[in-house]
Amino acid sequence: MFRDHAFCSYCISKYVGSEINKSVHDVKCPYPECSVVLKPQFLRTILPSEVVEKWESRRCEYSIVGSQRTYCPFKDCSGLLVNESEKVVTSAECPYCHRLFCAQCRVPWHGNMSCGEFQRKNKDPDAKFFKLAKEKNWQKCVECSMYVQKLDGCEHVTCRCGYQFCYICGKTWDYGHECKSNSILERIQSAYYSYTR
């Protein structure tokens, strides 16, 4: 029971699991007009342990400042890494998959090349990626710098780091956000004129 709102253990478990899978870190009571934030420690007895672990991990991840947070560049890992020192870190070993990567370039370790040499040598693949991102209108998360692709649904996007933003204009998502992007208006008008001709 959450204040005056009672829910069965099964429904709360499914609800919290669903919110965690959407990268929500502050899970609110499922009652529509309620704004009480639920805490993992109070639901341990009714939630599966893996849901509680994932929830606490999300809350911990969100509490880390974006500039200190990075992710392992290997697609089969993507583990969260935190730079806790003041030093600039280049070569790093992922504590999850134990592979080396460059923390500055955010790519697998590039051997005896400096970051500048590596970026100059590999300029074309980056250029191709950024060209594709521009063509597909992918948005870049301002919190963790990862690119996000939206396949369908509304413009409200939650990045894997938990940051919520508008997919159209890139601004922080607030309840009632109305995107005022001219490009969207132009696309709608263009589609309308194409349809009516």
What structural keywords apply?
single chain, 197 residues, alpha+beta, two-stranded antiparallel ribbon, 9 strands, 34% helix, 12% strand, disordered C terminus, metal-binding, ubl conjugation pathway
Mean pLDDT over the full residue set = 77
Element-by-element helix/strand order: HHHEEEEEHHEEEEH
Q: Count all strands and give the number.
A: 9
**Helix content estimate:** 25-40%
How many domains, as an integer?
3
Radius of gyration: 21 Å
Shape: globular
- Number of DSSP helices? 6
Which strand order does the major sheet show?
Answer: 3-4-5
Distance between the termini: 58 Å
Pfam families: IBR
GO molecular function: ubiquitin protein ligase activity; zinc ion binding
Protein name: RBR-type E3 ubiquitin transferase
Domain RING-type: 1-197
Q: How would you summarize the topology of this molecule?
A:
Layout: H1 9-21, H2 40-43, H3 49-63, E1 69-71, E2 80-82, E3 91-93, E4 100-102, E5 107-108, H4 115-121, H5 123-135, E6 139-140, E7 147-148, E8 156-158, E9 164-166, H6 182-196
Antiparallel strand pairs: 1-2, 3-4, 4-5, 6-7, 8-9
Helix pairs in contact: 1-3
GO molecular function, one term: zinc ion binding
Organism: Phaseolus vulgaris
Pathway: Protein modification; protein ubiquitination
